[in-house]
Specification:
By secondary structure, this protein is α+β, with helices and mostly antiparallel strands. It has 3 helices and 11 strands. It has one domain. Helices cover 23% and strands 42% of the residues.
Length: 212
């Protein structure tokens, strides 16, 4: 009976916090461009955005909030066959309030909040791109050293201003290091196979987040 009570407690305290970050960022009116000539370290999480990741070149680092909790770095790769736009985001995962709750209850709460975050990110992409279509979605895993991170992925198609059909991929990993979300966005022409470049980017980016 006591275990059931604790289970209910973690769920009830989590529900009001859906989408609420562990550390509530105070968002800027517009993203701020961070000038960095070499590797840039995200102080809050410990994540580092190198100047280069394989053949990808970093082009911008953005801060979205006052404290610098929510950051991103955009990279480009140009080839004779096509170009790949890759962006990695790091920001706080949704909060979970747990009072002496069993691990399985906390894990279930994380799964539900991760799914809610995934749905929210998908909707943002669909709203921001005219006639964007969700092609597929599912579960993914990424091996980093000896740690396997479980996440979610979705594939979209839309047209750019030049009527060129693009494919865009979303990868979302919540609670990395216990409290951080790592999100990847890759976009390239539909007639270009950028899968190897995309996989290489995720494998070559150092995951230096505290606790990961």
């Amino acid at each position: 009976m006591f275990k059931k009570l604790k289970y209910v407690l973690v769920m009830l305290t989590s529900l009001p916090l859906l989408g609420c970050p562990t550390m509530q960022p105070k968002y800027l009116l517009k993203p701020e461009i961070i000038k960095a000539e070499g590797s840039y370290a995200h102080t809050a999480s410990g994540m580092t955005f190198p100047l280069r990741i394989g053949n990808f070149q970093r082009v911008t680092v953005l801060r979205y909030d006052v404290e610098g909790l929510d950051m991103s770095a955009e990279y480009y790769l140009f080839t004779l066959s096509g170009a790949v736009d890759a962006t990695v985001y790091v920001y706080p995962s949704p909060a979970i309030v747990s009072i002496c709750s069993p691990p399985e209850a906390v894990e279930l709460a994380r799964d539900r909040l991760s799914q809610t975050e995934f749905e929210a990110v998908k909707q943002v992409i669909l709203r921001c791109r005219d006639a964007a279509k969700l092609i597929q979605e599912g579960e993914v895993s990424l091996l980093r050293g000896r740690v396997v991170y479980s996440g979610k992925m979705a594939t979209f198609e839309f047209e750019n201003a030049f009527a060129q059909t693009l494919k865009s991929y979303l990868y979302l990993f919540c609670y990395v290091g216990g409290k951080w979300t790592v999100k990847f966005r890759f976009t390239y022409p539909k007639n270009f196979d950028g899968s190897k470049e995309m996989e290489g980017f995720m494998q070559n980016l150092p995951w230096t987040l505290t606790g990961s």
